[in-house]
Amino acid sequence: MNITMRIGIIGLSIFFILIITHILKKGRIPIKYALVWYAAGIVTLLTGVMPDLIGYIAHFLKFEVMSNMIIIILIFILIFISIILTIIVAGQTTKIRLLIQEVSLLKEKINKVKK
Amino acid sequence: MKNKILIIIPAYNEEENILDTYNSIEKYNKKYKTNYDVIVINDGSKDQTSNICHENNIPVIDLVHNLGIGGAVQTGYKYAYEYQYDIAIQFDGDGQHNVEFIKDLIEPLINKEVDMTIGSRFIEKSKEGFKSTRTRYVGITIIALFIKLFSRRKIKDTTSGFRACNQKVIKYFCRNYPPEYPEPVSSFELLRNGYKILEIPVSMNERKGGESSINNAFKKIYYMINVVLSIFVVWLRGENK
């Protein structure tokens, strides 16, 4: 891997990690969700910092080229994040449904009392 | 002791039918000296459903946002539970169901023979009247087959929304009621948890206004896949503690 490519990867990874930190600082996402994104950032950062080590691991795991391994790892992280997001959305849908039901039942009760 | 009976009418954009439906129940109450209470669950209708209910003093719960049929009906069961009704009846607001059959539906519940009854179009003694379209009948039968396969019990009219249940089931439905494809899935859930279900022959009318929500081939297949998968998942889950 040539030096320009390494600098590019390192730069982008640091930028990505900084963005996540910024969002965290603003309180827009809780730490537990940020952790997976940090994991994704760190994987790419390591590729830029220690290509030899990553290359060695890739070779050891019988990947043809190093980038294949990186892409597979990142794809798995993304799939994992998607599943977590589906679970969160489903949980929130249930909570919203319960809230709508309870609020509507309460409103009906209040209307009855008013009459 | 007299049983407290509630008729739950889920309604989404039913301005054409809701008043007729309510009046048919009131007329029935007067004629047979029965005392069926009604609660309309207005599922965020965009038409005049809510206004019609309020103007005519029809008891109504206006959901603050559209929930879909499952969430709406569950609200009705929660209402039934809160006001300690002995029997809750699910009754469509679109004029498909006939109030005359309610007494047949609740009789086995009053006699404590079963936990839920389903008004069925397809069992032998079913009277004349609107059955279903052919494709729909095929779908209903396939679902029936899967229910039989996983529960070893027979329900023929799996998608009938004309049902009555006792207090035990009301309580169960308050906790667990499938928000999507509620009729076949909830019936199967009850069977899976050891509740007794009985089908009662009824005749239904063709819907007066509006259109079925499952109206094209893709939606039909999608519906079938979802229902069959849901039944499978409920089966996997085993009995609810």
List the helices and strands and how they pair.
The complex is a heterodimer of chains A (115) and B (241).
Chain A: H1 3-25, H2 31-49, H3 51-60, H4 66-114
Helix pairs in contact in A: 1-2, 2-3, 2-4
Chain B: E1 5-11, H1 18-32, E2 37-42, H2 49-55, E3 60-62, H3 69-82, E4 87-90, H4 102-110, E5 116-120, H5 134-151, E6 163-166, H6 167-175, H7 182-192, E7 197-201, H8 217-237
Parallel strand pairs in B: 1-2, 1-4, 2-3, 5-7
Antiparallel strand pairs in B: 4-6, 5-6
Helix pairs in contact in B: 3-6, 5-7, 5-8, 7-8
Task: Provide a short characterization of the protein structure.
The complex is a heterodimer of chains A (115) and B (241). Chain A is mainly alpha-helical and 115 residues long. With 241 residues, chain B is of the alpha/beta class.
| Cα end-to-end separation of chain B | 31 Å
Elements of chain B, N to C (H/E): EHEHEHEHEHEHHEH
Distance linking N and C termini of chain A: 78 Å
Number of strands of chain A: 0
User: What's the alpha carbon Rg of chain A, rounded to whole Å?
Assistant: 23 Å
Treating each run of at least 4 consecutive H or I residues as one helix, how many helices of chain A?
Answer: 4
The largest sheet of chain B is: 7 strands, mixed
Strand content of chain B: 5-15%
SSE pattern of chain A: HHHH
Largest β sheet strand count, sense and barrel closure of chain A: none
Relative helix content of chain A: over 70%
**Total E-strand runs of chain B:** 7
**What shape does the CA trace of chain A take?**
elongated
Structure description:
In chain A, about 90% of the residues lie in helices and about 0% in strands. Chain A has helices at about 5-25, 30-50, 50-60, 65-115. In chain A, helix 1 (about 5-25) packs antiparallel against helix 2 and helix 2 (about 30-50) packs across helix 3 (about 50-60). Chain A is elongated, with a radius of gyration of 23 Å. The termini of chain A are far apart. The model of chain A has no long low-confidence stretch (mean pLDDT about 90). Chain B has helices at about 20-30, 50-55, 70-80, 100-110, 135-150, 165-175, 180-190, 215-235, and strands at about 5-10, 35-40, 60, 85-90, 115-120, 165, 195-200. A seven-stranded mixed beta sheet of chain B has the order 3-2-1-4-6-5-7, with helices on both faces. In chain B, about 45% of the residues lie in helices and about 15% in strands. Chain B is built from eight helices and seven strands. In chain B, strand 2, helix 2 and strand 3 form a beta-alpha-beta unit. Chains A and B meet through helix 4 of A and strand 3 and helix 3 of B.
